[in-house]
Amino acid sequence: MFSQRHLLDIESLSREDIVTVLDLAERFREISERPIKKVPTLRGKTVVNLFMEPSTRTRSSFEVAEKRMSADSLNFSASGSATKKGETLLDTVRNLQAMAPDFIVIRHAYAGAPHFIARHVDAAVINAGDGAHAHPTQALLDCATIREHKGPLDGLEIAIVGDIAHSRVARSDIFAFTKLGANVRLSGPRTMIPRHVEALGVRVEPTVEAALEGADVVMTLRIQAERQGGLCLFPSTREYARTFGINHQRLALAKPDAIVMHPGPINRGVEMTPEVADSERSVILSQVTHGVAVRMAVLFLLAGSPPVE
Amino acid sequence: MSLLIRGGRVIDPESGVDREADVLIEEGRIARVDKGIESSARSIDARGQLVVPGLVDVHVHLREPGDEHKETIESGARAAAAGGFTTVCCMANTRPVNDSRAVTEFISRRAREVDLVNVRPVGALTQGLAGKALCEYADMKTAGVVALSDAGRCVMDAGLMRRALEYASTFGLPVMQHCEDAELAGDGIVHEGLMSTRTGLRAQPAQAESIIVARDMELVELTGARYHALHITTGASLRHLRAAKTRGLPVSCEVTPHHFTLSDEACLSYDTSTRVKPPLREASDVEALREAIADGTIDIIASAHAPHAVSDKELEYELSSPGISGLETSLALSLALWREGICDLSRLVQMMSCRPAELLGLYGAGSLRGGAPADVTVIDPEQSWTVDPTRFRSLGRNTPFAGQTLKGCATHTIVGGRVVYQRGAAGSEAPAPA
Fold first, then answer.
1. Is residue B36 domain-resident?
2. Does B198 sit within 8 Å of A110, measured CB to CB?
């Protein structure tokens, strides 16, 4: 069962919604392994990929998912292009609505933009990342990856390290992991820990070592130097890497079979050492593969088609 | 021309009146307040209603000159009259800024031409609201400004703020501060707390406000100048204000209906009508505001009426313009305080009429004493109505209360003895009946 008309965030999903996506994604993974990687499921459906902020990975992943489902997709990268001409987001969206798309996949620099769009269109809206708010398909693919390597998330110890405060991935991961029953610990400099985050059912650890102790999963977040602006969250990447970066010594505190994840793109030598990133513990590329399958599943569920058998 | 308001419950805290009585108006002034006045004057049947000194809102944005697509002095005055206000003080953040005698005179002239409610301009504290140099306060006072404020901007330079307070006090002009530390607030537009952690909206801590209140209390101690804190929103700010009042400093503060009614949970929907400056705060702050209304720390209610065009609000949350069109809902939201037992009606009238008039030295406003200008509001406290922004007189339809059913409204707004608003039975001059 999937209860949503749009996929705007993880917070509004039930545990059952999440499991539905993950189960379906598991079945869809097989499509990408066929010699002809295409099913006719979304033939005749139109998807607009509206990317108002630069993105390579997420956008490619959505495009591949759409193509494998036989949807017609249209890329609209408006990194300010329309807005710079004085067109508002509402104008842009009304123009798109006039083309009668079935889906709008939206990436936007401002939190809540997908909610705004969802109020003004008939299409199903999929949030591909909005400001520091949410990145639900990323969280779903993270869950799929963890499930593949560790089994059900119930009772797993998951450490998230880095800039939680400015990360949409962290917010969506926290909601997804806790809904699936995992225990989440956070670590990072206090400048990167949002206030009252404990109210979301997570623990803030005093040191990165404490967060890693006995962890099944270590999720590191990209240090977004480009988003820092004048925020002054840390003095230097050198100090960050030395204090919070994941290296083999720190990773040794986690369970022996713990996996290391990263939503990409990695700043090698900052969030983790290259040795860790390239080690057998790293499942970063598996995350990418799951990304395609999860996005296929989301498109399928929001299309409201009868289940394939 | 005379007018008799018959049989209402007259509440005039100034003269200690709270009883059923008639109010006789002659030649634009209050002639008598008494029982059973015999007069051949045209009469208003006010039985079951409240008759109070005309309401005063010291903090509104009328947008003219410069942003007439958002509001004009005329549409704003109509909104004020419909909301029960007989006097409004308009902020200086127009285009051009009201930082000179010429702009003050323009506003005063437009208000005279419109000729509905009393419009009293608040002049800029610094030239261009830039926080760098003082304006010509003496000249602006001659042209009619009743107070000084940089409106939505906070004077960050403590040295300049000190000089502004001193210079303003030379001419007896109160200084109204928008308390928001620009550096601590950064690009934060919502309250920093669990809501911002959930929504990812850029946030500012409550301390961005209270740190300026604390600093300004020290500057008031230094200068002895009359100081008014605009739209206070946090418990910490109130602690500083309470302490300053105990020390006998000449400070006052206001609260808006939206800040004592809504918490930051309203922002979870990303509805841009909830974007306001200062931002909606968390529930404990809302509770602190209501306590401060009850204990008298808060002097007055002001709407901070900030009308915007649809195109200023139909945007990404963080790109939308902050503000709520509040003149037409202020009275009903404030009456809820009385209904919920937070204050009595006399105190409510003080907060919405007497005290604001006193704070800004608005001669004759806020009183029903014999001889005072006949600015009177007749209120039906029990009338239910549904907020329908498309029926606002204000050009700004930006309100988070759209669709809500509120209780209480002005039935007659009388300025200088003239009825400038009368709530119709069912026609366009009425708030929609529930």
1. yes
2. no
